[in-house]
Amino acid sequence: MVQIGVVGVGHMGEYHVNVIKMLESNGFVKFTGIYDINESRMKYVSEKYNVPAFDSLNSLLKKVDCVTCAVNTDQHYLVAKEVLNANVHLLIEKPFTLLYREAEELVEIASKKKLMLQVGHVERFNGVIQELKKKYLKKTVYIEAVRMNPFGKKTRDTGVILDLMVHDIDIVLNYFEEEISDISSYAKKIYTDFDDFAIANILFSSGLVASFKCSRASYIKTRTLAIAQESNYIFMNYDTKEIEVYKDTNSHFEVDQRELIYYRGGFVERITVHEENALKDEILHFINTVNGREKQNFSNENDLLVLKTALKIVKTASKNCDIPYEGDI
Fold first, then answer.
1. Closest by alpha carbon to 281, among 270, 271, 294, 292?
2. Could you give the domains of the chain?
3. Is the N or the C terminus of the chain less surrounded, counting Cβ atoms within 10 Å?
4. What angle do CA 135, 124, 166 make, to 5 degrees?
5. What's the pLDDT score for residue 276?
């Protein structure tokens, strides 16, 4: 059985611990232990979830086949490099790294050592995205992604583009395989020294336009994706797990336990997707790639493209707005 550990048990890392304990109880994996540089936090999580705590990263890596990593973003590269050099498979939270060359180096190490390296873009495993991918993606002309969060108490070590917008960049680049022609973007600092609100537009070589808006200064949480296609208009809500497909009356359609709502000139096909735990599915997929039961669904080349695109958006916004850019693109 695969032995797994968690490195970094802060806000996001605790979610990893909870999911892995559940997977262990169902016989999918052996949860070997956790490590965090914050000893008091590690002790708290260790006692809460009844999981062993290790006194160093190296001591944990000697006991496991793979780890999930949820350390601060500025530590991603250093920790990931140590993990991979110890011949341990790695699932690392997004954003991949702060610098593109760092991510390239990690991909190269993993490739040479034949290790699984997965970036934690959890929306890939959201049920509504899976449903969308199976049946509804056709010739698309326009995409609009909106992701608005309240500020909250979570420590922020990156801007909202690398923190939130990167989810939607990942979805668009993975499911609409088009070459980027141009990027425009604007951003604003509100509560932190980084971008807290941002908008971006990407023009693809086919003429497809993708528009992104994200904020962590909202009073209302919103996560939606709208897709205008030649034959219909799709509106997807990540939070309610609903997809609405707007079609004209001349469209061919099939009804399969879905709700139809008629309006003037057409109808709406409304699909509610059964709610699953996307983080559980993400980690389980990682475990199954480590033990050879599944092939990796997403390539590291795409992970690099997502990071490069996000960094370009930050860089473009920094030229027009008062936000920092310390990337290498």
1. 294
2. 3-120 (3.40.50.720), 124-277+311-320 (3.30.360.10)
3. N
4. 125
5. 79
Alpha-carbon distance of 169 to 183, in angstroms, equals: 12
* Beta carbons of 99 and 328 less than 8 angstroms apart: yes
Collect the ranges in the chain with pLDDT lower than 50.
253-257, 263
Distance, CA of 130 to CA of 123 (rounded, Å)? 10
Q: Tell me the C-alpha to C-alpha distance, in Å, between residue 172 and each of 124, 128, 178.
A: 10, 14, 9
Instruction: Identify the H or E element spanning 5.
Output: strand 3-7
Place of tokens 């917008």: 165
User: Scanning the structure block, which residue is given the tokens 């509100």?
Assistant: 190
Which alpha helices (DSSP H) does the chain contain, by range? 11-25, 39-49, 57-61, 76-85, 100-113, 127-135, 160, 166-175, 278-290, 300-320
Closest CA to 308 of 94, 71, 101, 91: 101
Q: Which residue matches tokens 């965090």?
A: 36
DSSP E strands, 189-272: 197-204, 209-215, 222-229, 233-237, 242-248, 259-263, 266-272
Count CA atoms closer than 13 A to 200's CA, side-chain side.
31
Please tell me the distance from the alpha carbon of residue 136 to that of residue 156, in angstroms, as a whole number: 36
Q: pLDDT tens digits, residue range 38-51?
A: 999 999 999 999 99
**For residue range 221-268, what is the model confidence (pLDDT) as tens digits?**
999 999 999 888 999 999 888 999 988 765 554 444 455 555 455 678
- Using DSSP bridges, classify how beta strands 66-69 and 3-7 pair: parallel, antiparallel or unpaired: parallel
Buried b (16+ CB within 10 A) or exposed e, 21-31: bebbeeebbbb
The pTM assigned to this predicted structure is 0.92
